[in-house]
Amino acid sequence: MTADRLERQLAFIMELDRLKQVLRRNVIADRSRQENTAEHSWHIAMMALVLGEHADGEVDIGRVTKMLLLHDVIEIDAGDTFAYDAAATRDQAERERVAADRLFGLLPDDQGGDLRALWEEFEAEESADAVFARCLDRMQPLLLNRATDGVSWRRHGVTVDQVLARNSIIKDAAPSLWAVVERLVAESAEEGLLAPRAQDS
Amino acid sequence: MTADRLERQLAFIMELDRLKQVLRRNVIADRSRQENTAEHSWHIAMMALVLGEHADGEVDIGRVTKMLLLHDVIEIDAGDTFAYDAAATRDQAERERVAADRLFGLLPDDQGGDLRALWEEFEAEESADAVFARCLDRMQPLLLNRATDGVSWRRHGVTVDQVLARNSIIKDAAPSLWAVVERLVAESAEEGLLAPRAQDS
Fold this sequence. Notes:
mainly alpha; about 200 residues; two-stranded antiparallel sheet; homodimer
């Protein structure tokens, strides 16, 4: 192992620190501030450790955890794209590809390639591991919105249909979690935290 | 699977959110604010994915990652204990044991027991996985201090001997990482970021 290899790994690790400065639209449970992407990534990795048994079919929770830890690293360059912002999501894929080139490129080639492949697998949402990882990534902001009287939903006028569509991947991949999603969305709609439909514009 | 089981898992997951509010003594790399324990846990889990090859001997990086993700959950109740605060470290073990009882107790018994056993394995520092996990947990604040001109070291008058003693577990467990520790400490001492020895009191 060359010293250069370790230097590249350390450079990547220090670059990762910047994910702590990327702010998401949702707030943490005490509503004191926005959540950042690094702590979000930790939270969903912990969800993988706890909720693995709810996956329908076989998933490798170790791989799911790894995917969840690294799937948002590209936000260091590409920023967080709000799920319900149609304009921003339009060029999201290209911005994230360029970010992946640079960030995974900091690592030794073999290692950067391995992590990038795992990120691409997550993005493609085709493998069972990627689908379950996505379920947890989708479900976490819903849990936080529910815990905070939908502060982020209300601020952005998010509708019942939008949340159900966004979380629909959970329906087949983790039926017991989907039942929770349906219940939380129904309760939130009843309390007026989610708009019934998109506002006329 | 009972509905109650999933409810207990969700209660634990929501409780985890509070780790985002536990502040550590070190600052993030841009020095804008203190680091919180949730994002610290994410950072060291990422270090496990990248630095696993530097472990001397066989380690299971999946287990190491899991340990690192959950090892500080007890700080939700017990708070962060500054490594160089002798008074606070005195009753740390008892405070953390009580915290573990409550927090892992939120989960279904089998699952809470499994995660608690992993936390205890980390704390005992006996298995190869636990020792390597501890190495990364020790090394990360050193990297952040080095990146921030030792702002946390200087604020608390930390000495060369203290940092070397605290990181000494790395010496045999990951010799190539230990070489980095020695270099960073020597550079930091030369620049006056670390005090040469404890101040007379």
